[in-house]
Amino acid sequence: MSAQQGLVVRLILLERFGDIVANVGEIIFQNPNSLYHIAKSTKVPLGKVKEALSILIKHNLASFKLNVDGITAVYTLNIKNVFLMLRFPKFINLIKTKFDEEVEILVEEILLKGCLTGSEVILKATARLQENKNISVLIQQLKDKFASLVTAKYVIKLSTPTMKEEDLFALPNIDLKKLLIVLNGGSETLSDAGVYWTINFDRFHQDLRDQLIVNAVTNKFDENIGELMRILLQQMYVRTAPWVPSSNPVPILEVKEILKKRNTHSQLITHFEQYVNILEQDSTGIIRKVGEASGGSYQIEMKHIFNQLVWETIEHIVNEKFDSKASRIFRLVRSRHYIEPEQIQNLVMIPAKEAKRILYQLLEENFLVVNELKRSAPNLGPNKSFTLFHIRLDQIIRNIMELCYKSLYNIMTRRQHEKYLNKRLIDKKQRVDTITHGMRVQGISGDPVLDIEEMITPPETEILNRIGKMLQKLSLTELQIDDTMFSLEMYLMYD
């Protein structure tokens, strides 16, 4: 944990839950604490602290356990899950791409509430979708689509100490007749009451990981090799657990048959062997051939892939933060492992003075490390030791994570500042949008709606457009920073 990380955690909680939850989260981020200590530290009424803790626990952002006295509960912040909230837009987009709008709404409701029963998810989604639709048909469709989310393991039951692993994805018993009664204003005890579901982040991360690999291969080569990589990953799951460093062998003829059946990439089918050879011979070590029979089989080397991706990410950061000369020096040190300053100056073909400046700049920013070694021969005088530059990857990763936290803090602070400066205008726009939407729902159109919309003047519209573009740019940058953090997390998991 770092101070910069704590600042970002507070801002994430502040944006999503408000000031009280952010204050409570900040206290238990610093140290696990009891209810009364949290209330005393935050100077928030005890009842409000209880509400804040219940929100954090419901969203799996905090946990608790008994203190050594066996009586007092001690609360701890789940920092990793707080940062996962930055990734929610990616999860929603992923589901929308793989399924449809209705499934997207089911997932969105669970993300918003933290955990819900299957019936509650369907009721909330129905309320959002019921306009101009047959309710009975809609509920049946949503029930089937919720079942498909469970089967695909995108949602998971909240586990209890006695629950078996196979029960985590057992389909819920949802009574449609009771749901209809509740929708019509009646009171019923729903059949799955007390069985709560939450998002299975592990499953989403699996898809994001695969997408990252396919995109990296596509960018490096072309769409055909990207499609080849996608099918290799799909077939990997038939015979391999999702998170192993190296997959079980995948028969390459099996991949070829799938491509022929799909018949979507004719060039890939025609030159299949050449594309496989390109992927196999790539320096990244993406796949490795095992066996010779019937075209052989290939293992997917997940650990090698993310090792290479992290190095490429670091080199890109060095190039952006410093310049191409610094990137050249960094690559040289990486290739030699340990190297003297004089050798660097000779090999990179940069003037000695400039090379020395870049070296110590990289050293100051923790991208390089210096080891000073003593020579064993006696009577060497002033040359009794020599200096070697090298790279400590774990140190660089910690350094980049801190840079990510700092960037996230700056982005979120700027976003809050813009919203604060233009709060009156943003609130006005929201009121106008709410009124016009309500009028359209009631079937009102034409001049009455235009009159309300014209309450926002052209200069105000121009300001709102500028604010919208800025906030969109900040959000996009936030997602790009999260991409970097995700790559680093994947590397650390496989390391």
From TrEMBL:
GO CC terms of this entry: RNA polymerase III complex
**Presence of keyword Transcription:** yes
In this chain the RNA polymerase III subunit RPC82-related helix-turn-helix domain maps to: 9-64
Q: Where is the DNA-directed RNA polymerase III subunit RPC3 winged-helix domain?
A: 314-391
Question: Primary place of residence?
Answer: nucleus
One GO BP annotation of this record: DNA-templated transcription
The RNA polymerase III Rpc82 C -terminal domain covers which part of the protein?
172-309
**One Pfam family recorded for the sequence:** RPC3_helical
Cell compartment(s), UniProt: Nucleus
A GO molecular function for this record? single-stranded DNA binding
Highest taxon listed in the record's lineage: Eukaryota
Q: Which UniProt keywords apply?
A: DNA-directed RNA polymerase, Nucleus, Transcription
Matching InterPro entries: POLR3C_WHD (IPR055207), RNA_pol_III_RPC82-rel_HTH (IPR013197), RNA_pol_III_Rpc82_C (IPR008806), RPC3 (IPR039748), WH-like_DNA-bd_sf (IPR036388)
Subunit structure, briefly? Component of the RNA polymerase III (Pol III) complex consisting of 17 subunits.
Q: What does the function comment of this entry state?
A: DNA-dependent RNA polymerase catalyzes the transcription of DNA into RNA using the four ribonucleoside triphosphates as substrates. Specific core component of RNA polymerase III which synthesizes small RNAs, such as 5S rRNA and tRNAs.
Q: Name the family.
A: Belongs to the eukaryotic RPC3/POLR3C RNA polymerase subunit family.
Q: Which PANTHER family match?
A: DNA-DIRECTED RNA POLYMERASE III SUBUNIT RPC3, RNA POLYMERASE III DNA DIRECTED -RELATED
| Designated name of the protein | DNA-directed RNA polymerase III subunit RPC3
User: Which source organism does the UniProt entry give?
Assistant: Aquatica leii
